[in-house]
Amino acid sequence: MATLDGEGLHKPQDIMMSPWAVQRYDEPGGHNLPTTFDIDYQNLSLLLQEAAILYPQCAKPKLYPTTQPYIPVPVTTPVVPVSLRSGSVTVGVVTKDPYSEGNRSGQGPNHTTDYREYDTSSAVPLRQGRHNNKLPLSDACCGTAVNMGSSRQEPSTESLWTGIKPAVLLNGTWTKPRHVNKDGHIFRKLEFEVPLDHHHHHSSQKDALKLHAELVDSFPDPKPTTPDVLSSPISPQKPIILYLCGGPGDGNPSDRVPELNKFCIDRGYQVLYVHYRGTGLSPLFSDSAAKNKVMRMSDQDKANYLAKFRQDNIVRDLEAIRLCLEKELPTKIKWTLLGQSFGGWVATTYLSFLPQSLEAVYISAGMPPLGKTPREVYEKTYSHIVKRNEDYFNEYFPEDQEHVRTIVEHLRGKAPMQKGVDGQPFRGYELYGENGERKGCYLTYQTFMTLGRTFGSAPVVRRDRDMDEEEYERPSLASSIGALTINPSKSSLASSTTHISGTPPLSASYRSSSTSFTSLSSLPDTSLTPEIPLPYQKLHNLITRLISDLNSSKGISSATLTIYTHLESFALHRRPLYALLHEAIYCSSTCPLTRQASNWAATEVALFHPSGGFSWLNTSSSPSSSSTTIPSKRKGDKEKMYFTGETLHPSPTLSSLGGSAIVPFLGAADILARKGDWPALYDLSSLNKNRERGVKVRAVAYQEDMYVDLELSKQAAGMIGGCELVVCPFREWGHGSIKETDKTGRVLGWLFDGFN
């Protein structure tokens, strides 16, 4: 029998899951547990559940009685046959157990394994604070006790995905096309209404949400002359591609990537663009009355409201739209999903729970990190962010490290005093809109240091070790995931990267809209150097302007602040959900290991990163750790100042970036960061069985993607039955390649046809 003490669980090889796992501890005798601890049913269940994850070789499939049968979930997946120029090759798959401790630490043997999916329907929160694999008997991470004797039980995952009703098509928008473009593409506007909560269809009408969508199709005559053609019905014969954009929080305009529309329409599809709930032209509130109602809510109620805007409810909205269109069209509709970045998260959730509604799933730079915690994801993310900072400061602009320190010192100690949302003063420069309106946003030292967000569109510098490795690499199949991996030769790279020799394209390659980054083309820069990546040049020009202003003793000019406003790409004032739900998209009760709160994971990972470049985040609101210390610089060394990427951090950074759009939700944002009972976003058992269902799944991943790590993408692909992952052979191509004019057709070709 295992022994419990204040340090945790010892001798895991001796754990017995039965019989005492289901006994009450007010019964006398029959166990070998210390009498100094008052261990109840809840604590024991939590302890054993985590022990089973850490030490699966000791566990039986069930820890306590449930109503759901045990379903073994094979982690490994056979390879889809991939066509190469030299012929067709089929490879079997063997992968590491992604839930083993050895795999999380990058070690451990390769083996074929079954992952037991334990019941999570009883709402038992998992513990946090595990150190050195010890399982402390402390309070649960959610901070709320669960009465195991209560008859109350959370809905099962299956019940959360049944009973979705068709959306309501509003006001005859069926026959309201927006326009016909020069290519003969018809843009038809559609408006739908869906419930805020799909499980409460009879709630107040004021809680309903409006969804804006646009359907793009072709007309036989590229220059129609009669008004009747604009009112022609939607074709029931053509299949529909549902394009899922990045985010969270972005709008989904139908004319952003014309080449994508042309490619899909030429292949006989119609393309549907839906603005997710609360984004773009689908407002966060149905009307002013609904907005006022939410604004008067407590922080907890606001958090509950915002929690309904993640990808699980986005999928329910899309399913409701599909059901609505089936009512209007005399045909059965199955979506073909095309997801970019966060759109891949949405697509994988759809594939998990409603595969019967799908024909195919194509994903570019958007394989979600299945089975990973937010902290594990951000540890990977920061390795890419640090690499981009090293490129910027070591390879291109080494003088800017000292300039950045000077700017931060000025913003921290000499910028004008401002009144904070909590009444506490802070220093910063207020920013204004194009018409001089106040937005409540500020340039502070924290917001200045977030400007690395656009670094992901810059190619990574090739160092000597990279070139040496490439000499000996050959095109091969990745036997661990069943995906095609190409390691290009120098000649292929030279022939495929001519666009790098000139000014790089302005399309953004981060997980979001490229609108604000594209607008940088209007900045008055005349000294751009073709050999230096454009994002680095834009940032360097801003730093040069700031230093010039500070040397003039007149402070930072309004012209320089305007340049900063264009360069700052979060744009939270018009897409607040990006900030409020960014970490929440990684939180899921998919398996017990991931059932935990984010707790501002990005900030904690940055603070304790061994590079020491993010210590500027160390404010009173930053999280602390009892087991880790912030890296200290050696005596005589100057403090490194590294820019962060797309990660977001708690106020004051959040309030200064988002202004009036974010401030009312700051309390709710902190509650969401501490929320540990998120519903499941994925069903690993269902995903593993996808090959049997016949839904085609193909994805493209990028070698130097700063936002979606390649290794995590490979692991996720291995957990989806029949998934084929194409790793882009060109290191210079990035996260947003599918949206770049000269790359769109190539990426779509890989997705639809495979690599050949």
From TrEMBL:
- Give all residue intervals belonging to the AB hydrolase-1 domain: 239-403
Top-level lineage group: Eukaryota
Per UniProt, the keywords (alphabetical) are:
Hydrolase
Name the Gene3D superfamilies on file: alpha/beta hydrolase
Which GO molecular function annotations are given, in alphabetical order?
hydrolase activity
Q: Name one Pfam family in it.
A: Abhydrolase_1
User: InterPro entries, alphabetically?
Assistant: AB_hydrolase_1, AB_hydrolase_fold, Serine_prot/Carboxylest_S33
Q: Where is this region: Disordered?
A: 95-116
The name on file for this protein is AB hydrolase-1 domain-containing protein
Give the originating organism.
Answer: Neurospora tetraspora
